[in-house]
Specification:
By secondary structure, the chain is α+β, with helices and mostly antiparallel strands. It has two domains: 182 residues, Penicillin-binding protein 2a (Domain 2) (Alpha-Beta Complex); 121 residues, 3-Layer(aba) Sandwich (Beta-lactamase), CATH 3.40.710.10. Helix content is 37%, strand content 16%. The protein contains 15 helices and 13 strands. Strands 4-3-2-6-13 form a five-stranded mixed sheet, with no helix packed on it. A two-stranded parallel ribbon has the order 1-5. It has a two-stranded antiparallel sheet with strand order 7-8. The longest helix has 16 residues. 35% of the residues are buried.
């Protein structure tokens, strides 16, 4: 009995949302899928019903919200998958639901009001242009996800007819949500973690100085600053502000490997992240066997370190919010189809 209560209270939604659960079809047989809305109630996904009862899921913004809203054809992805249970649950007024049951008509599912801002989403989409990559905008003080763009993308309105092409395009992987699932070398954004570890290990970090000649050589390894820029004498703040690769490689060589790994894992590398959509874990490989060359590369954001844009957004938001990571979220409110 205890397990049944636990299952219904804590695991029911996860099981129902699973793409392997055939009970989803039973929900869809009696509920018209609810809408997904942006923060201003603009419709991002809705189901229209024709006179003969045929249902069509449509996405008014097409490619713009392809990955974050996702799709509900040929399986499910994005919010269409993550909020499947709620979209196929109706909290319409009780009398309305009873009347529909008597008339053998479907009830209308609940609407998901998201935190997404269409003006920001459009700006991010335009800024990314034709480049492969991702943009994620998070409000540091609240955890609201305001925009999430991934490219290459697709039009969810024509997903079914283009499925084979989209699903087999391994060169561009248009179905991959790079904001959440892409894994990349963090580059200079990782200097946040390196600087933090240096400050932890060196309480006198304000006395740090390094004379940058545009590159650093160590045991046969040479690493250059961007475009060979010579930064000259740098303290820690200047090294960070100027993104001086040579200085950060120098810093990396001073770090305790075990402590460095501990700090990275406190920032959720090699750990689970707060879930808003399916994601890839960040990877931090430094350990006591790491070579000096690899340590230098890691300190400047290269090497074997891999991270998603979502993960780095959490870290930078924590810095902006005074060290506190707010729980990220995409859905701000669930309303019935009447807006209540």
């Amino acid at each position: 009995m205890g397990y049944i209560v636990y299952f219904n209270a804590f695991k029911g939604k996860d099981i129902i949302n699973s793409p392997y659960n055939k009970r989803q079809d039973a929900f869809a047989d009696r509920i018209i899928r609810g809408k997904i809305l942006d923060k201003d109630q603009n419709v991002l996904a809705e189901t229209t019903v024709s006179e003969d009862g045929a249902e069509t899921r449509s996405y008014p913004y097409g490619n713009l919200y392809a990955h974050v809203v996702g799709y509900a054809t040929n399986g499910k992805a994005g919010l269409e998958s993550e909020e499947n249970f709620n979209l196929l649950t109706s909290n319409a007024f009780i009398l309305e639901r009873v009347m529909n049951e008597f008339k053998d008509e479907k009830n209308i599912g609940d609407n998901m009001v998201t935190t997404l801002d269409t003006s920001l989403q459009q700006a991010a989409y335009n800024a990314l242009g034709s480049s492969k990559g991702a943009v994620l905008v998070m409000e540091a003080s609240t955890g609201k996800i305001l925009a999430m763009v991934s490219k290459p993308d697709f039009d969810p309105n024509t997903l079914a007819e283009n499925w084979e092409v989209l699903n087999t395009d391994t060169e561009n992987s248009p179905l991959l949500n790079r904001a959440m699932q892409g894994q990349y070398a963090p580059g200079s954004t990782f200097k946040i973690i390196t600087a933090l570890e240096y400050m932890r290990e060196h309480p006198d970090y304000q006395s740090y100085s390094y004379d940058c000649a545009g590159s650093i050589q160590y045991q046969g390894t040479e690493i250059h600053c961007f475009n060979g820029m010579v930064h000259g004498m740098q303290n820690l703040a200047e090294s960070f502000a100027n993104s001086c690769n040579a200085s950060f490689c120098n810093i990396g060589l001073t770090l305790d490997r075990s402590a460095y790994r501990k700090t990275a894992e406190e920032l959720l590398f090699n750990k689970s992240l707060p879930r808003i959509l399916p994601y890839s874990k960040g990877q931090f490989a430094v350990d006591n066997k790491t070579t000096d060359e690899e340590l230098m590369m890691t300190a400047m954001g290269q090497g074997k370190t891999l991270v998603s844009p979502y993960h780095m957004a959490l870290i930078t938001a924590a810095v902006a919010n005074g060290g506190t990571v707010m729980k990220p979220y995409l859905v701000s409110e669930i309303q019935n189809h009447n807006g209540a």
